[in-house]
Amino acid sequence: MADYQARPAHRVSGMLNVPGDKSISHRALMLSGLAQGVSEVTGFLASEDCLATLNAMRALGVRIEQASPTQVSIHGVGLHGLTAPAHALDMGNAGTAMRLSTGLLAAQRFSSRLVGDASLMKRPMERVAKPLRDMGADVRTHDGTPPVDIVGGRRLHGIEYAMPVASAQVKSAILLAGLYADGPTTVVAPAVSRDHSERMLQSCGVRVTTEGLRTTVYPPQALASQRLNVPGDFSSAAFFIVAGLLGAGGDGLLIQNVGMNPTRIGLLDILRSMGARIDVLNPRESGAEPVADLLVRASVLQGIHVPASLVPLAIDEFPVLFVAAACARGETVITGAEELRVKESDRIAAMSAGFAALGVAHEVLPDGMRILGRADGPAFGGGDVDSHGDHRIAMSFAVASLRAAKPLRIRDVANVATSFPGFVGLARSVGFNLSEDG
Ligand code: S3P
Question: Which residues are catalytic?
Answer without folding.
Answer: 316
